[in-house]
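User: I'm putting together notes for a lab meeting next week and I want to include a structural view of one of the chains we've been expressing. I don't have a solved structure, so I'd like a prediction I can at least talk through. The sequence is below, exactly as it appears in our construct file.
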Amino acid sequence: MADQQTVEHKRERMRELTILLNKASEAYYAKDEEIMSNFEYDRLYDELEALEKETGVVFADSPTVKVGYEAVDELPKERHDTPMLSLAKTKSREELQDWLNGKKGLLSWKLDGLTIVLTYRDGKLEKAVTRGNGEVGEVVTGNARVFRNLPLKIPYQGELVLRGEAVITYSDFEKLNREIEEEQEKYKNPRNLCSGSVRQLDNQVTAGRNVRFFAFSLVRADVDFHNARKEQFAFLREQGFEVVEYREVEPDNILDNISYFEEKIKTYDVPSDGLVLTYDDMAYGASLGRTAKFPRDSIAFKWADELRETTLLEMEWSASRTGLINPVAIFEPVELEGTTVSRASVHNISIVRGLKLGIGDRITVYKANMIIPQIAENLTGSDNLEIPGHCPVCGEPTRIRQENDVQTLYCDNPDCDAKKIKAFTLFVSRDALNVDGLSESTLEKFLAKGFLHSFADLFRLARFQKEITQMEGFGDKSWQNLSESLDRARNTTLPRLIYGLGIENIGVANAKLLCRQFDYDLEALKNASQEELAEIDGIGEVIAKSIYDFFHQEKAMEQLADLMTELVIEEKPMQEGTQNLAGMSFVITGSLLHFENRNALKEEIERRGGKVTGSVTGKTVCLINNDTASQSSKNKKAKELGVRIVSEEDFMQEYLQ
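Assistant: Thanks for the context. Below is the predicted structure for the 657-residue chain, given as structure tokens.
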């Protein structure tokens, strides 16, 4: 037992080192930052390498191995040595208890991903094949090599065949979806995303999806497991695999263990759609044989959905930035799986019509996989819900699109306010008007409800206070905080306003540059010619055209004039300070000691007329880096171009005195 704990401890240390070293490498090569010294990196790297040699385990994401990316024209097919059967299913806890027949069993998660069969020979991963139709699967060996936690080398040198589930966690799924702007292009659920990720033709795509692998069954290995399936799990863990979580059960404690999983699934990050119960006695399980469809040594338990009956109060049609209008059912609040719910997405027109919905209908609702509220059944079936003929935001006609037998509702108006989410998000951001309490999702709701049409409307939201305080997750306290934040935002500076207007190619630095150039006079900036703008150092013809075109759009100027009635713009700064850095360009990298962060130093340089850029060029006066001897890409570039590398303190003494 002590030896097994020691091995577990070593593998856990290997995982810690892998995460730490990969984080250091990413900071160094991708962000030009150093979170540890080269000496420390080398020391930890040597420790990891020694542990890999000692244990015989090497994880796929280990910095000691570089798995080359590869692309194929198609995924080859391969027949499984033994058919991969489905499992018989039940939703009855008592049936599971009876099924044990007085025997011991192992109760584990039934993960919701893509089943993979792995083959190892001579301690190395030789092959990975998807379940496919149970008889024939697709070979995905190159993709399996980039699974986040899969060992490429294991201590066991014989032939080892095992099965497991490739999954993508909810947190990784949500992170990937946040990076996708188009609503209809977002992934529907982690399982579909995982399936597509594992079956990519280019495994560089797979590598970016953070696919993980959990072993759940050993198919073949020349090892004596003493007729105990739990020893197979222990063996797989010793080889470096993450094994699906399981608990040993008997008829008298299985119900308590089901309750354990039932409670844990509420916060479990790995998608699961139930449990699997298997006999620990392998010989007994094998003696039961199988049916044409199911093995008799295992059974799946599916969560019995908790249904609640309620009344459909309204259908909210929520317009998105892509023009898609999503139906959301609003019903009398009910308690489901320990929380109060009153809303459920109905997804599209086809589902609305399939459920034959109508206002006032009695419906049953549940949480899919105990998480996502859904309508299960319509008990009334009035089928009289009216599909909006006009967009709820802009009032323009809607259109029903049909793709693959699925109907969806769209607004095709390119000027629909619901499509302005990015502009509003920028306007309220920290470097612009800095309005707390207005996340992108909140702005999207306000736009969808027609509360916002122009930036000025943000400061007139009090007209909709009653509706806002009744919105889900937005009560009186939230409204008070938002109202106070908007009042603070009314008093702003001209650079913040110029940046917040979202003029193409105008970032924070250029907004400040323009304000200084025109002596903080908005009218002078608005009336500047394109040629006059292009002559400003650091602006140029392309940016000049963006500025000129913006200030010559009639609608934009009408909205700006309206906005100015709501704002108080601070006068020109009384003390601009010395402009000793005018015309000079600098680059900052690494951590700082005297300034709170890089932005603070950047603001000081800009206050003195200088400019801070992101990359070193021949025009850079100096690179500010407290680690002047670093081998970062910026340091190397500076040396190539003959640009001085100075510490923060040296820079302050030379330029900020």
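A couple of points you could mention at the meeting. The first strand starts at residue 58 and ends at 59. DSSP finds 24 helices and 26 strands in the chain.

User: Perfect, that's what I needed.
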